[in-house]
């Protein structure tokens, strides 16, 4: 199950769509893990002739299928951090008419979208589609550290070790949700961790 | 009038106190015996003499100590003051607005001398006498917004206006009711209000935004907002919640009168002339329950409001666990008599508490 319907939420929480092939002078597709499936769904030979795919497999075995699409340029990297400077350069070098496709986890889409906005890519040229893990990229409001791929609520901050609950409040600038101490008023009383949408 | 500035703290030993003068001018936020969200805006064009509405930027007995507390917060966490690069001009607008307003409204405390762009600012309560060149950042020790808001009570959000929305692109936020500038900076009006319950469904934010987008130069607006705080703690930030949250559990029937504070925000909105930004000062006033109860009308009304407040709001405002204890305390100040309309204490006309 790589498609998930997120429950309705508050206004700061991002919503994602379904990728569609658009006419463009060039196409930049950035995906992680099961986001590869959305690329396979949307790719056309015409698009691939002008496409640059940046893919973070995260242990998923889609690299061969993506390469078989014969994009003009292809990169697979071990992590978003490792790919980050390459992604920034792709946005900085972008010309008018670029279409951007972001797909996979919320953390991947959020960070790539932030990089695109920083580079001045118009939001109308950016599409997103969620696939795969519903884990969240969380910022600890106390120590400011980011914990990647958080699957449970509450969770332990990877930096300061506080027990944090998962809010739906989301910052596009940080590409992260907010985590807040859950046992501040009753230290040590931490409910059992459950899946975020359980 | 001459203000006697208190030497007091908003942390540790909490020596903060309100004088009788400060209690009588406290901005009690309930104009009737119940509360629900509304776009309760009115023009900010002065008010009764001595009231917190009288001047554009109210200065009171807590000024010097509040500025000392702000400096301590900033030393611990400089991210409480941030300004995106395109907001510097709005910072100068704000500096001008505050300097002109305070020097006109409190000439015995503040002086502004202008010769073209060569300005001299004298702040007597804080012992500041600085000369600088207006619009030249290199002539001030901080950016213009930080410089002036280190000398003005209340938090300041400076909002950029574009795409028919307001964007939280700069701010000085050290006395906040549990929200993080560092997290919310860059958000639009709907995004930063996203966690507020009920109000979106009531269309409050759509109407409020429409109003705010149309605020004109020289025609500021204001409203009151409120919450509850245990101990007179100004810095109820999410950043430090893991340190102060525990204080909510220290209330007891014996200490609630002195420890539990009603926290009221005077929110004002001014259009800034060069940048077309909107500045949104959020001034925090604190008053202990026992001091509020010295005004019979407020005692009766606070009990009714807290008793009848929807559960979502009591939860959002963070006092749902303490509400029963609050009601036990407040009910002894509610004798069931009718209350007069409006927020003012009406000490001359309202009856004393029946024994």
Give me the secondary-structure topology.
The complex is a heterodimer of chains A (198) and B (355).
Chain A: E1 26-32, H1 35-42, H2 45-48, E2 51-56, H3 63-68, E3 73-76, H4 80-92, E4 98-104, H5 106-118, E5 126-130, E6 136-140, E7 146-150, E8 152-153, E9 155-156, E10 163-171, E11 176-181, E12 194-195
Parallel strand pairs in A: 1-2, 1-4, 2-3, 4-5, 6-11
Antiparallel strand pairs in A: 6-7, 8-12, 9-10, 10-11
Chain B: H1 20-24, E1 42-43, H2 63-76, E2 81-83, H3 88-105, E3 110-115, E4 118-123, E5 128-133, H4 144-149, E6 155-162, E7 165-172, H5 181-184, H6 189-192, H7 204-213, E8 221-230, H8 241-244, H9 256-259, E9 260-271, E10 278-288, H10 289-292, H11 296-308, H12 311-316, H13 323-331
Helix pairs in contact in B: 11-13
Strand percentage of chain B lies at 15-25%
> What coarse outline of chain B follows from CA principal-axis ratios?
globular
| Helix/sheet category of chain A | alpha/beta
- What proportion of the residues of chain B is helical, as a percent range? 25-40%
Q: What is the CA-atom radius of gyration of chain B, in angstroms?
A: 20 Å
Q: Give the oligomeric state.
A: heterodimer
What would you note in describing this structure?
- The complex is a heterodimer of chains A (198) and B (355).
- Chain A has helices spanning 35-42, 45-48, 63-68, 80-92, 106-118, and strands spanning 26-32, 51-56, 73-76, 98-104, 126-130, 136-140, 146-150, 152-153, 155-156, 163-171, 176-181, 194-195.
- The model of chain A has no long low-confidence stretch (mean pLDDT 97).
- Chain A is elongated and about 60 Å long.
- In chain A, the strands form three sheets. Chain A has a five-stranded parallel beta sheet with strand order 3-2-1-4-5, sandwiched between helices. A five-stranded mixed beta sheet of chain A has the order 7-6-11-10-9, covered by helices on one side.
- In chain A, 42% of the residues are buried.
- Chain A has two domains: 26-130, Nucleotide-binding domain of ferredoxin-NADP reductase (FNR) module (Rossmann fold, 3-Layer(aba) Sandwich); 136-188, no CATH class.
- Chain A has 198 residues and is an alpha/beta fold.
- Chain B contains 13 helices and ten strands.
- A seven-stranded antiparallel beta sheet of chain B has the order 1-8-9-10-6-7-2. Chain B has a three-stranded antiparallel beta sheet with strand order 3-4-5, covered by helices on one side.
- Chain B has 355 residues and is α+β, with helices and mostly antiparallel strands.
- Chain B has one domain.
- The chains are: A alpha/beta (198), B alpha+beta (355).
- The A-B interface holds A 10-13, 139, 141-142, 144, 162, 167-169, 171-174, 178, 180-181, 184-187 and B 79, 180, 182-187, 190-195, 200, 238-246, 248-249, 321.
